[in-house]
């Protein structure tokens, strides 16, 4: 069961409140800062934001030197153990188990984790999202260690976990009709099994119809074809048609590497966005992580119209600066995409799922690309809130305004590392991190209060996650080119010297 709502009206106060002001001309409006502001919540809705609420309230909560803000919208939210960190210092990816070798494929890929493991991963990841102030999440997980795609059973477990923890989610098992396969040293080719992929699509559609709107609306459906190079035309056209019929978002990882881009051009005779346009794939809620390898960027010598296609069809670029930056990549750039009129929303896509850190890394990368005046703190804060809500066509999310959903976070500005404040948003992007989120409300319920998520044993969950992670690492040689021993796949920063285990109180 989701956390219980408080009865009656609750008035919240803090040094700063990030409210929302409507556009008189009918646009979406924008965030405003209320110094020593108030937020009043009743049931699942915000009823007042500003100063001097005159109505009756059942209780008052003053959070002092803190910021009350809308919860973050994460369109590419990590929902497993982050296997991408295994590639942080272990490259190239094809040599370190990140691409299936042909002999593993022929032998028959298998599930490397049990159903219980997969359900635990979702709950473990969802708790981490809440700790970092993410109130709306579209989960993403790796298919590298899966037999093929994600299953209905694990996503039924995910729906139950989201309801129990009080996290707003859009759920849909990932599916595909193909995969990248190593046929020689560093030689990657596509491989397809369309019949199997279409069966996975049918299962995903059945799940979407059953889950959409459950848990009092906390759980919604999405469709999640995995990556563009692993999809056939029939899979994508059926996906797009179903999404339009059901009115749900579709997320497709696209334009995220030169390998993917070149593979699509070779297979389809056009760029990834051009191919999607030719299929009629784009819809009202098309989400495209990561768009880091595209044509048509102003000032970048890569001629084409990829970005224009994405923009003109109203699709959203899901920007994940931390995971991209870890691998030496970024969009080129946030400022140029924004100036073109693209909707840029945010995803975390890695551990830690710290949206504040992602905004900080993003603004640093943008300024490295285009200079120190290229973008401002509020541009990234909009991307993590308003733009994500717009991508989902949810004007009741990503902002604190009367009538909107009571999805909010409280960020503690009394932490010693915060230092002196300019304004809360600039302060957040200079000195904050996800661990500064002290309280999280979703749908009018406290999903986390004073850093505690009810029913979650952090220490026990961390031990279980580490044990699962180590079992997964031990299986890597099975699906790594040449099947080297595990110690040759994963290096250590320095030599490891083992010794006796010493426990106890010093």
From TrEMBL:
A GO term for molecular function: hydrolase activity, acting on carbon-nitrogen (but not peptide) bonds
Annotated InterPro entries: Amidohydro-rel, Metal-dep_hydrolase_composite, Metal_Hydrolase, MTA/SAH_deaminase
Keywords assigned: Hydrolase
Organism superkingdom: Bacteria
Record-annotated Amidohydrolase-related domain positions: 113-446
One of the Pfam families matching this protein, by short name: Amidohydro_1
Sequence similarity: Belongs to the metallo-dependent hydrolases superfamily. ATZ/TRZ family.
Protein name: N-ethylammeline chlorohydrolase
């Amino acid at each position: 069961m989701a956390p219980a709502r408080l009865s009656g009206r609750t008035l919240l106060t803090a040094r700063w409140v990030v409210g929302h002001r409507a556009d008189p001309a009918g646009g979406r409006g924008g965030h405003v800062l209320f110094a020593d502001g108030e937020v009043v919540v009743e049931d699942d809705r915000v009823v007042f934001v500003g100063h001097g609420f005159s109505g009756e309230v059942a209780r008052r909560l003053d959070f002092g030197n803190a910021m009350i803000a809308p919860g973050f919208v994460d369109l590419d939210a990590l929902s497993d153990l982050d296997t991408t960190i295994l590639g942080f210092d272990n490259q190239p990816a094809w040599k370190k188990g990140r691409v299936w070798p042909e002999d593993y494929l022929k032998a028959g890929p298998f599930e490397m984790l049990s159903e219980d493991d997969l359900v635990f991963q979702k709950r473990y990841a969802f708790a981490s999202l809440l700790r970092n102030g993410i109130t709306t999440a579209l989960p993403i997980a790796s298919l590298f260690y899966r037999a093929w795609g994600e299953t209905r059973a694990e996503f039924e477990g995910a729906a139950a976990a989201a309801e129990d923890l009080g996290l707003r989610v859009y759920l849909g098992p990932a599916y595909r009709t193909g995969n990248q396969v190593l046929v020689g040293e560093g030689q990657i080719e596509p491989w397809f099994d369309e019949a199997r992929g279409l069966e996975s699509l049918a299962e995903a559609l059945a799940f979407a119809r059953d889950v959409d709107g459950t848990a009092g609306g906390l759980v919604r459906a999405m469709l999640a074809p995995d990556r563009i190079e692993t999809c056939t035309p029939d899979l994508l056209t059926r996906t797009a048609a179903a999404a339009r019929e059901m009115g749900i978002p579709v997320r497709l990882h696209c334009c995220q590497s030169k390998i993917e881009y070149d593979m699509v051009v070779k297979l389809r005779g056009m760029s990834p966005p051009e191919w999607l346009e030719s299929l009629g794939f784009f819809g009202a809620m098309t989400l495209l992580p990561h768009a880091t390898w595209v044509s048509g960027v102003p000032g970048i010598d890569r001629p084409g119209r990829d970005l224009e296609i994405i923009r003109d069809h109203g699709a959203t670029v899901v920007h994940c600066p931390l995971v991209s930056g870890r691998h030496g990549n970024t969009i080129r750039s946030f400022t140029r995409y924004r100036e073109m009129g693209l909707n840029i929303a945010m995803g975390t896509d890695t551990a830690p799922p710290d949206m504040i850190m992602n905004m900080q890394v993003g603004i640093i990368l943008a300024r490295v690309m285009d200079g120190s005046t290229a973008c401002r703190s509020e541009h990234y804060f909009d991307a993590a809130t308003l733009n994500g809500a717009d991508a989902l066509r949810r004007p009741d999310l990503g902002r604190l305004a009367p009538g909107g959903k009571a999805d909010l976070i409280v960020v503690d500005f009394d932490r010693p590392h915060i230092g002196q404040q300019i304004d809360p948003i600039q302060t957040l992007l200079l000195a904050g991190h996800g661990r500064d989120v002290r309280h999280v409300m979703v749908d009018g319920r406290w999903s986390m209060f004073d850093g505690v998520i009810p029913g979650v044993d952090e220490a026990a969950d961390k031990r279980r996650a580490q044990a699962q992670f180590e079992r997964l690492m031990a299986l890597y040689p099975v699906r790594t080119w040449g099947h080297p021993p595990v110690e040759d796949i994963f290096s250590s920063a320095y030599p490891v010297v083992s010794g006796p285990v010493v426990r106890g109180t010093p």
